[in-house]
Amino acid sequence: EDVGKGGYDHYMLKEIYEQPTALRQTIRGRIDTLNDDVILDSFPPGSFDEVTSVQFVACGTSYHAAVYAAGLLNESGVPAQAYLANEYGVSEPPIPENALVVGVSQSGETADTLEALRYADAVGARTLVVTNVVGSTAARECTDAMYIRAGPEIGVAATKTFTSQVASLALLGERLIRDVTGTPSRFSAELLDSLSRLPSDVQQTLDDSTADELAELFDGSDAYFFIGRGLGYPVALEGALKFKEISYEHAEGFAAGELKHGPLALVTPDTPVFAVFTGQHTEKMLNNVKEVQSRGAPVIAVVGDESEEVHRVADEVLTFPEAPAYASGIMANVQLQLVAYHAARRLGRPIDKPRNLAKSVTVE
Ligand code: G6P
């Protein structure tokens, strides 16, 4: 088993460090930077001409990737909504005519996600799965499949597959935007350029990370909170999920704007708050930071390395190379993966196999 870990103490750490390679595989041959174009062999231009809206269904980490993707599409005028597959499956919402239902599932075997996709299929919707596993049940059953090409992931806590899912969904999203609206997204050139730089930017994020020291600094806290806005919101949710899954500590992710509607009651000097900055909504995020600081909570900003004002206001920072919001969220998430990992390692948790959790949940 140690051979498979390639010198790392855990599969999770190995997979965190594999992200630049996984990303290279995900985007290989799919971006034409010269012509500012997306090349998806299974989805040539016009593949989604009849689509008018998108519904995502997913669970766990994949749901957070779906929230991210829905945000990207909505920003470009394609109506999109992310649903937890287990809720979708029980509430069976109406599916608008010409809606595309996109399942996001690393394994392609999650029972809740399969159930949601089967419901969509039964009512006549076109279905597509974004998955890591060729030949998985979802890939066989859906009308279409897109593969994230991240390579096998052994650690129960998903890391590199989240990153590759988000990158894949951005590429698929760009194709959808072009087909549905008739024009490239307004951030198309920037998005494709930042995607092609992402493998090296993520490498730099990993190389420069001080997440280990930071985990030590806040060891023994009462709880750990994560806040974000826009594309930073799913990153906050994912940061908290990773942290609770493997450290067994209380961790929650909130939309930063929701703090004042309840979560602020939990904030004390013993609840560090990780604030995800993507370059969008910075002023509002800074107000939220001040809100929690005035209750005594230390704030760790996860932020681009050139954002001086944020660096000045935050108590601690975890940085990544300056990039557009879309790529910033991915790099912020890499930092939060490392924080969760080091916190769990300090506590001596069985990181690759957390109690009560399974890599793939094939029961409802
Ligand atoms: C389980 C795993 C999670 C994963 C979720 C969805 O709960 O522990 O890491 O995000 O299933 O899995 P999927 O294979 O559908 O992405």
From TrEMBL:
Annotated Gene Ontology cellular component terms: cytoplasm
Query: A biological process (GO) annotation for this entry?
Result: carbohydrate metabolic process
Q: What is its EC number?
A: 2.6.1.16
Give a yes or no for keyword Lipid biosynthesis in this entry: no
Q: What keywords appear on the UniProt entry? A: Aminotransferase, Cytoplasm, Glutamine amidotransferase, Repeat, Transferase
Recorded catalytic activity of this chain's protein: D-fructose 6-phosphate + L-glutamine = D-glucosamine 6-phosphate + L-glutamate
Instruction: Enumerate the subcellular locations listed in this protein's record, separating them with semicolons.
Output: Cytoplasm
User: Transferase among the record's keywords?
Assistant: yes
Care to name a GO molecular-function term for this sequence? Answer: glutamine-fructose-6-phosphate transaminase (isomerizing) activity
Q: Chief location of this protein?
A: cytoplasm
**What residues does the SIS domain cover?**
39-182, 214-354
Name the residues annotated as catalytic in the UniProt entry. 359 (for fru-6p isomerization activity)
The free-text function statement in the UniProt record for this protein reads: Catalyzes the first step in hexosamine metabolism, converting fructose-6P into glucosamine-6P using glutamine as a nitrogen source.
This protein's assembly is summarised as: Homodimer.
Q: What is this protein called?
A: Glutamine--fructose-6-phosphate aminotransferase [isomerizing]
Q: In which organism is this protein found?
A: Salinirubrum litoreum
Gene giving rise to this polypeptide: glmS
